[in-house]
Amino acid sequence: MSISPLQKERLQYSPKLPGMLRNGIAEICVKEGEETKSVADQEKIKALFPNTYGKREITFEKGQNTSAAKKQVVGVILSGGQAPGGHNVVCGLYDALKATDRENVLYGFKNGPSGLLNDDYVEFTDEFIDQYRNTGGFDIIGSGRTKLETEEQFAVAAEVCKKHGITAIVIIGGDDSNTNAAVLAEFFAAHNTGVQVIGCPKTIDGDLKNEDIECSFGFDTATKTYSELIGNIERDANSAKKYWHFIKVMGRSASHVALECALETQPNICLVSEEVAEKKMSLSEIADYIADSVANRAANGMNFGVAIIPEGVVEFVPEFSVLIAEINELLAGAKADEFNALPTWKDKYAFIENGLTKESMAVFAILPETIQQQLFLERDPHGNVQVSLIESEKLFSALVKAKLEERKQTGTYSGKFSPLHHFFGYEGRCAFPSNFDADYCYSLGYNAFMLIQYGYNGYLSKISNLSKPAEEWVAGGMPITKMMNMERRHGEDKPVIRKALVELDGKPFKFFEAHRAEWAVETAYTYPGAIQYYGPASVCDITTRTLALEKGE
Ligand code: FBP
Fold it and tell me: pLDDT 10s digit of each residue in the chain, 553 long?
C-alpha cells in the first residue's frame, strides 16, 4: 500500500497521555469519588437503571495497580458519523490491553453496532493496527448508524459476547450511541452476563458535552479544517472584492461548529441556530439581518463578504418548523402518491396551496423554487422532509437577494451582490487528527481499558482539564446515567443523555456577541491556516477557542 509522506510521519507520532497514565499499567490506581445522581428526573432514571445508577465518579492516580488479573477479550464499535481521532481511540485501547497482558484480545465489530449483531468482526494485531495510528477516518473497521436499543438486540449481543468470551464492549459514539451504551450496560448487568460496557464521547458536532465531558473528540480537528477553508475563502474574498460567500457548516442540530469557526475566522455574519430559536426569528428577519451587513459594507465600497450558516438552522426558525410539520402531514400515507402523480410543478403547487394553512403558505411562497421543490422531493424512509438536505446557504442568499432588490427600489441600497455557495461537512470528518485529537483520543481509549480492567460498567471514559497541556490532563470515568434525563422521543418518555446546544449565556457566545457588530461591517477576518502537526506547541497543540473561552482562558 502506498502512503503519503505525512501519513508515514504520523504513523510514528507518539500520542501524549495524561501524566497520571504515563508510568505504565502497574502504576495506575483508582480513586473513587462521590456517588452520582442523574442531572434530572432522578427517581425515574434510578428505576430504569437499578443496577448501574448512582455509581461513583472515579479518577486514576499514580500508585499500585490493584485491579484483578483476568484475561480480557474486548470488542470495540465505532458508531455514527466519522470524527477525526477514532482510530486513536482504538489504538489507545489496544495498547493498554496488550501492555496489561499480551494474551488479551481486541475485536473490532465492523460497520457500526450492526457488526455486533451480525457477529462480523476482525481481531486486531500489531501489524494491522500500526497502519492506522494517528490517521483520520473510521475505515479501520467502518462505522454505521444502526441503533442498539431493543431487548431482542441486546439478547443477540449477549449471545455474541458469550460465544467469543467477550468481557467488555467499548462503544465510540455520540449522545444517542452512549445513551444506548448505558441501556446495554444495564441489560448486561441485569442478566448477569459479566460483560461490561464503556462509552467514549465522539462527534464533530460538539454537542456531547456537559459538566463532566469538556468536549467530544473530532470537534477540534473538524472545526480547524473548516476554519482553514473559511479563512482561505475570506482572503480570496478580500482579494477579489466581488463575491459574498455563503458557507454552510456541519452540525446536525447545535451550532457549536459554526460558532467555533466564527471565533476562529471573524466572518461578517454567523448565524447561531439557538439564538434564532430564542428570539423566534423569522426567515424574513434573518434575511434582513444579513442584508444589513451587505448594504452597510456596500456603502463603504465593499461588495463582498462571508456568512457562516449552521447546517441545522432552518429547524430552529419557528415558522419553518411549523411549515415542515404541515408538509409531513400533507403527504402522510396515500396522499404522497396522489401528490407524486400530479404531472407538473404548477399542479403540485396548487395541491400544496390547498393543503397548507395561510401562515405556512406565506412562508412557503417566499422560498426560492429550488428549495420549495427540495422540500417535496427529499423524503426520509418515513416520508418526512429531510431537513438536513435543505441547501440553507442557497436559501438565505436568495432571500437576501430579494431583500436587496426591494431596497434598491426604495433607493436605500445601490451595491452589487454576487453570492457563491459552499458546504463544509464531510471535508472535515476524516482529516488527520490534530495533535489535540490524536492525544485526546489515544488517552480516551487507553483510559477506557483501565475502566474495564478495574471492573466498571456503564461508564463514559473521561479525560478532563483539556485546555492545559496533556501532562496535566485528568483521567477517570463517569457513570453515563449521571448525564441522563427524561425526554420525549417519538411519542415516548425516554432516558437520554441531554444534547448540549450552544448556551446563549455561555462565554463563547458572549464573546462572539460582543464582536459581531464590528465584524459585520469591517473586514476583520483572521486566517488560521492549516492544522500544524510539527513545530512549536503554540501552533501545534492549541485547542479550540470554544474550550479556551469556556475555561476562562
Ligand atoms: P454524529 O452525531 O453521529 O457524530 O454525526 C454528526 C454528523 O457529522 C452531522 O454533523 C451531520 O449532520 C451528520 O453526521 C451527517 O450524517 P451522515 O454521515 O449519515 O450523512
Answer: 689 999 999 999 999 999 999 989 999 999 999 999 999 999 999 999 999 999 999 999 999 999 988 899 999 999 999 999 999 999 999 999 999 999 999 999 999 999 999 999 999 999 999 999 999 999 999 999 999 989 999 999 999 999 999 999 999 999 999 999 999 999 999 999 999 999 999 999 999 999 999 999 999 999 999 999 999 999 999 999 999 999 999 999 999 999 999 999 999 999 999 999 999 999 999 999 999 999 999 999 999 999 999 999 999 999 999 999 999 888 887 788 899 899 999 999 999 999 999 999 999 999 999 999 988 876 777 777 887 788 999 999 999 999 999 999 999 999 999 999 999 999 999 999 999 999 999 999 999 999 999 999 999 999 999 999 999 999 999 999 999 999 988 778 999 999 999 999 999 999 999 999 999 999 999 999 999 999 999 999 999 999 999 999 8
Q: Is 256 in the pocket of ligand 1 (CB under 6 A)?
A: no
User: Atom 18 (ligand 1): residue with closest C-alpha?
Assistant: 81
Distance CA 209, CA 211 (A): 7
Q: Is 254 in the pocket of ligand 1 (CB under 6 A)?
A: no
Task: State whether the beta carbon of 311 lies less than 6 angstroms from ligand 1.
Answer: yes
Rounded Cα gap, residues 146 and 118, in angstroms: 11
80 CA distance to ligand 1 middle (Å): 7
Atom number of ligand 1 nearest to Cα 311: 12
Give the separation between CA 359 and CA 322, rounded to whole angstroms: 9
- DSSP notation for 212-277: S----BTHHHHHHHHHHHHHHHHHHHHHH---EEEEEE--SS--HHHHHHHHHH--SEE--HHHHH
Looking at ligand 1, which residue's alpha carbon is closest to its atom 12?
A: 252
Distances (CA, A) of 321 to 283, 364, 375, 491: 11, 11, 12, 17
Atom of ligand 1 minimally distant from the CA of 312: 12
What does the H/E/C string look like for 519-547? HHHCCCCCCCCCCCCCCCHHHHCCCCHHH
Tell whether ligand 1 has an atom less than 6 A from the beta carbon of residue 310.
no
For Cα atoms 29, 95, 205, give the angle at the middle one, nearest 5 degrees. 90
Burial-class residue 336 by CB neighbours within 10 Å (0-12, 13-18, 19+): middle
Catalytic site residue from 95, 205, 437, 439: 205
Cell 513545530 belongs to 535
CA nearest neighbour of 45 among 497, 413, 356: 497
Report the nearest-CA residue for atom 16 of ligand 1. 81
Query: Measured from the CB, is residue 204 less than 6 Å from ligand 1?
Result: yes
Amino acid at 80: G
Whether 205 sits among the annotated catalytic residues: the reply is: yes
Ligand 1 centroid to residue 493 C-alpha, Å: 24
Q: Which of 148, 250, 273 to mutate to test the pocket of ligand 1 (most atoms within 8 A of CB)?
A: 250
Query: Which residue among 145, 148, 172, 204 is best mutated to probe the pocket of ligand 1, counting the most ligand atoms within 8 A of its Cβ?
Result: 204
Residue nearest to atom 19 of ligand 1 (CA): 81
